[in-house]
Design a protein that fits this description.
This protein is α/β, with parallel strands linked by helices. It has a domain at 2-153 and 190-215 and 259-269: Rossmann fold. The protein has helices spanning 11-22, 52-59, 74-79, 81-101, 121-141, 163-174, 192-201, 222-232, 273-287; strands spanning 2-6, 26-31, 42-46, 64-67, 106-112, 145-150, 152-154, 176-180, 186-191, 210-214, 218-221, 238-242, 263-265, 291-294, 297-300. The strands form four sheets. It has an eight-stranded parallel β-sheet, with helices on both faces. A three-stranded mixed β-sheet has the order 7-9-11. Strands 8-12 form a two-stranded parallel sheet. Helix 5 links the parallel strand 5 and strand 6 (145-150). Helix 1 packs across helix 7, helix 4 (81-101) packs parallel to helix 5 (121-141) and helix 6 (163-174) crosses helix 9 (273-287). The longest helix is centred in the N-terminal third of the chain and has 21 residues, at 81-101. The radius of gyration is 20 Å and the shape is globular.
Length: 302
């Protein structure tokens, strides 16, 4: 069995590519940039999802297709609505059509809990549109699918568009944490490695043509998360809460009425939040090794 991961060089996609490889699949990664995490047994294909021929050639010979490509940052999606629609909706449809022509056994799409919400702006709309088109491809062409709606992801390989990464980096490099909002916002955090493992488990027949929510056990307020980080770092970090800049993000829950009910899938074992944060801190500290500790704070040593 062979699987291809579009957007497999990124945060979640690279972890899913690793989990699929571990499950015994041949794995191809399709992305605009080479994966820095490429492993033996993973084939790297550089390309753009807007290139129909490249996508068609990449999918040929595959059994399972994952799509993690496109605009994933809500703030950037608001700034670039046309690009978001092109990448997220048209790009996904190009991949879908190649799946149809190649008789793929399962198409797996990375959606978001924001599809339930009235927040999320253009990003939410693009994900909702993709879900409807995927349904139509099943109805019209019989293309089997699974749509994954992820909770708040964190863990190694995250970048600046991940809130926990930005917060940990700011704590390490500046000795403070800034949050736009009062910190009472609730999130269901799931470690990216747990999410990746669940993203392979859903290839079982039970989840064919289903919507699946992938979150963790760790439901927590933003303020509590920041306090936990502060405790891990010896209670030396200043915490600052500023007025929210926008209404792009939900506060307590993303859910508003939606006719599409999803199964919630939680791994039987998972990485504890404290351990996960320590793992992230270790990665960020190594990346920003030019900071040294003086008087209890980290300052630039360059």
């Amino acid at each position: 069995m062979k699987a291809i991961v579009f957007g497999g060089s990124g945060f979640l996609g690279s972890h899913v590519a690793d989990a699929i490889l571990k499950a015994g699949y041949e794995v191809a990664i399709f992305d605009m940039k080479p994966s820095p995490y490429l492993k033996t047994g993973q084939e790297m294909i550089q390309g753009n999802i807007m290139d129909k021929i490249a996508v068609q050639n990449a999918i040929s010979g595959c059994d399972v297709v994952y799509n993690f490509a496109g605009m994933a940052d809500i703030e950037k999606a608001k700034e670039k609505p046309v690009e978001t629609v092109e990448l997220n909706i048209l790009g996904n449809t190009i991949i879908l059509d190649a799946c149809r022509e190649n008789n793929i056994k399962r198409f797996v799409f990375a959606s978001s809990l924001y599809v339930y919400s009235k927040t999320g702006s253009i990003y939410r709309c693009s994900k909702q549109a993709c879900e409807l088109i995927i349904e139509n491809y099943f109805e019209e062409y019989g293309l089997p699918y699974t749509i994954l709606r992820y909770g708040s992801l964190y863990g190694p390989r995250a970048g600046e568009d991940n809130w926990i990464y930005r917060t940990l980096k700011q704590a390490i490099t500046e000795g403070r944490m800034t949050r736009y909002g009062d910190g009472e916002e609730l999130r269901e955090y799931v470690h990216v490695e747990d999410a990746a493992r669940c993203s392979v488990d859903i290839l079982s027949n039970e989840f064919e043509n289903e919507y699946v929510i992938i979150t963790g056990y760790q439901r927590m307020k933003i303020k509590e998360m920041m306090k936990m980080i502060n405790e891990i770092l010896g209670n030396r970090i200043d915490m600052e809460f500023l007025p929210a800049k926008s209404k792009l993000h939900y506060e307590i829950t993303p859910y508003s009425f939606s006719p599409k009910i999803a199964k919630k899938y939680v791994s039987k074992y998972y990485l504890d939040m404290g351990q996960g944060l320590l793992q992230c801190l270790d990665e960020i500290y190594k990346k920003h090794h030019h900071y040294k500790e003086i008087s209890g704070l980290l300052i630039n040593d360059e």
